[in-house]
């Protein structure tokens, strides 16, 4: 199967292809400074949001679980750039960047984490169950691997309904060893033979599932290669390099849209944050390893490129950071000051309305 990029010793990959030069609006992807600045803002928005959620958790204002995306920002930012209206996005519980990138109001995303009635799903979902159908986000799921069959089903439905939309299905390296993954991958490959499964599988290989490294959870550590068994093509990308992700994201999203066949991208990345709120004291990663990946931080790498190419100077970078901080401060205050959901809300959204899903009687 196609492996256009190759692993390097430190877990990254060397991109062998030249970045392509088209984006969804016909402009340049890799060389257009304005576009990179826009995406830099998105990455800072995510980073700042996540840092604020960590503070909110420590203050006891965010309950339940909290899994942040720090270190992985280039992956979602690059792929969501290839999102087109009508597409669907589905992911697991490390889901905060998705509504932010798809256009949900950061205030309602933060309020959801605070469990408030003004939250994205009225405070009923929390950190792991973000949902914004209008903007293409179909969750947010806490059961590892549980959402994978749903994503493959969405892709089938989109073709069945004769649209040219695709499903972006995100999954972690840990989810690959789950039974639901294998059943769904089999169907995705099978339906893809008839052009009936426009599913772009995006593996966020951050090297660990909780405290267990990929090498300790499977004998076949080339995760993309698992898809050979199901007849689905795959490749790897350096998930710390936004431009590399952008190139792959646009090319593969176009391919999936045109062919109706699934495709897999394994993004090699790293969560520099702990796994979740219950994992403050890491015993499974060396300081050296974390340091090595931090040196390849996706935000830092992009800042370096913006400076080197003289697209932005230090002052301009600082201005963007300040602007994003203001947005997130506002979101945090909004969440903090919002009301708890009303008791009546316990009885709404429990069952789907008949008209909504079952048709008129
Ligand atoms: C079916 C199931 N088994 C176990 C868990 C507990 N659990 C929560 S997160 C996690 C690790 C998943 O790792 P990965 O898919 O790599 O995602 P990451 O956290 O690295 O983004 C596990 C095992 C769960 N939520 N669901
Ligand atoms: Mg993982």
Architecture overview:
With 361 residues, the chain is α/β, with parallel strands linked by helices. 40% of the residues lie in helices and 10% in strands. The protein is built from 12 helices and 9 strands. The termini are far apart. Residues 1-30 have low confidence and may be disordered. The site of magnesium ion (MG) has 6 residues, from β6.
Secondary structure layout:
Elements: E1 6-7, E2 13-14, H1 33-58, H2 73-80, E3 88-90, H3 97-102, H4 106-113, H5 148-160, E4 167-172, H6 179-192, E5 199-205, E6 208-209, E7 212-213, H7 214-217, E8 234-238, H8 242-259, E9 263-268, H9 287-294, H10 298-308, H11 314-337, H12 354-358
Parallel strand pairs: 3-4, 4-5, 5-9, 8-9
Antiparallel strand pairs: 1-2, 6-7
Helix pairs in contact: 1-2, 1-10, 1-11, 2-8, 4-11, 5-6
The chain binds thiamine diphosphate (TPP) and magnesium ion.
């Amino acid at each position: 199967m196609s492996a256009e990029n190759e692993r390097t010793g430190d877990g990254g990959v060397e991109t062998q292809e030249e970045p392509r030069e088209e984006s969804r609006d016909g402009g340049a992807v890799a060389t257009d400074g304005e576009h990179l600045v826009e995406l830099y803002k998105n990455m800072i928005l995510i980073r700042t949001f996540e840092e604020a959620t960590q503070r909110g958790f420590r203050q006891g204002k965010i309950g339940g679980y909290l899994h942040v995306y720090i270190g992985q920002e280039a992956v979602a930012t690059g792929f969501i750039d290839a999102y087109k209206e009508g597409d669907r996005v589905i992911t697991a519980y490390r889901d905060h960047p998705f509504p932010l990138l798809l256009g949900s109001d950061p205030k309602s995303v933060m309020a959801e984490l605070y469990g408030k009635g003004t939250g994205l799903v009225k405070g009923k979902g929390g950190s792991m169950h973000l949902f914004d159908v209008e903007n293409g986000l179909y969750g947010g799921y806490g059961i590892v691997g549980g959402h994978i069959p749903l994503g493959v089903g969405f892709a089938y439905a989109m073709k069945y309904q004769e649209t040219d939309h695709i499903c972006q299905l995100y999954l972690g390296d840990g989810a690959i060893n789950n039974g639901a993954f294998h059943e769904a991958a089999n169907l995705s490959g099978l339906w893809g033979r008839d052009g009936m499964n426009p599913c772009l599988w995006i593996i966020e290989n951050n090297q660990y599932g909780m405290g267990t490294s990929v090498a300790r959870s499977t004998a076949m550590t080339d995760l993309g290669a698992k898809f050979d068994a199901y007849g689905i093509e795959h490749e790897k990308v350096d998930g710390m390099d936004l431009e590399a992700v952008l190139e792959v994201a646009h090319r593969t999203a176009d391919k999936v849209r045109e062919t109706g066949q699934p495709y897999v991208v394994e993004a090699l990345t790293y969560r520099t944050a702990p796994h979740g709120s219950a994992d403050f004291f890491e015993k499974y990663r060396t300081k050296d390893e974390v340091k090595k990946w931090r040196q390849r931080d996706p935000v830092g790498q992009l800042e370096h490129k913006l400076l080197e190419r003289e697209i932005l100077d230090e002052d301009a970078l600082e201005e963007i950071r300040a602007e994003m901080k203001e947005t997130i401060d506002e979101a945090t205050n909004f969440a903090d000051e919002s009301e708890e959901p009303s008791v009546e809300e316990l009885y709404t959204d429990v069952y789907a309305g008949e008209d909504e899903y079952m048709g008129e009687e």
